């Protein structure tokens, strides 16, 4: 019997060996925030696709989680943007690894890691997750003149900031942050079925049936918890049955805690700190709030949308790219407690309308699934690799 021949790859379609990449990721954050969650999601997605990766970062939550994936980690903790010793050590490490791409995931990684890409003749990709202005001082201006192949921004709002600073449009790519939509939705549904949200409410002293309004965000200046708490005061004047929770940790911990404990809030604000069981928190909430006055994208909004929790948030940065006003959520001006309070009250006072928006959001949030983020980033790496190899030759 004549055996049929196994077909080979189609002409022009990269084989796995041609597509396989060597990637060095660099981050300098010591704590765990949304950016670190995105790095972990990206590394995990790329690992499933067979790419070889390394992480250079401080010892901390991200390093621990990356090692658990079987990815090699080496310590990298520059003391400042001008830490030449750390930069040279990373450059030596990069040259020995011979990566195709060096992806710099933080502002300090950008300053101290670009030379690592140059020394290895690798493509240099810089992540930009915040919409702060760039080039506002001599050091920042110099940093944004360093040779970089691509800036990846998590929203069009951040891309606009870079364009305004003079970055060529072709050098800036928008790749929205993503979440595992189905997994998150299933986890929240499971938390509801297991009554873990109810258990949290009881632990926080929230009476059965009382509306619970919450934020899940780092206690950092740009998240603007002061406006959230000012809005809580206004909501309580009209809805004395309302309760509030600020889940998260960060540098403003004591300041926010002191404000939340003020007598006029009547003990109605809970501050549980960093919470591992985010699905249970989302299952406990009746309203999700993000009161930021600056925001790159704000993936906690995506989490709330996937969870089916009504959202009111601010019209800043990349947030309008996730929310269609009056259709999938409510948008209000930043630093406006009256407007934020009105949005919260509207959700509480018109629950059917709020449920309709939340249901619509649970459908549209699929545009921000994490696999799309991994797809787009992988495609960028593959696009840049031949260009860098040509330059090295």
Task: Kindly report the name of the CATH homologous superfamily of the largest domain.
Answer: Glycogen Phosphorylase B
Number of helices: 16
Global morphology: elongated
User: Could you estimate the helical fraction of the residues in percent?
Assistant: 40-55%
Main sheet makeup: 7 strands, parallel
Total domains, how many?
A: 2
- Strand order across the biggest sheet? 3-2-1-4-5-6-7
| Element-by-element helix/strand order | HEHEHEHEHEHEHEHHEHEHEHEHEEHHH
> What multimeric state do the chains show?
single chain
CATH topology of the largest domain: Rossmann fold
> At the first level of CATH, what is the class of the largest domain?
Alpha Beta
Average pLDDT confidence is: 92
Q: How large is the radius of gyration?
A: 23 Å
Q: Architecture of the largest domain in CATH?
A: 3-Layer(aba) Sandwich
Terminal-residue CA separation: 49 Å
The amount of beta strand, in percent, is 5-15%
Quick tags:
single chain; 393 residues; alpha/beta; Rossmann fold; 2 domains; 7-stranded parallel sheet; 45% helix
Protein described:
The chain is α/β, with parallel strands linked by helices. The chain has 2 domains: 20-178 and 370-392, Rossmann fold (3-Layer(aba) Sandwich), CATH 3.40.50.2000; 181-368, Rossmann fold, CATH 3.40.50. It contains 16 helices and 13 strands. A 7-stranded parallel sheet has the order 3-2-1-4-5-6-7, with helices on both faces. A 6-stranded parallel sheet has the order 10-9-8-11-12-13, with helices on both faces. Strand 6, helix 7 (156-164) and strand 7 (172-174) form a beta-alpha-beta unit. It starts with 15 loop residues before the first helix and ends with a helix.
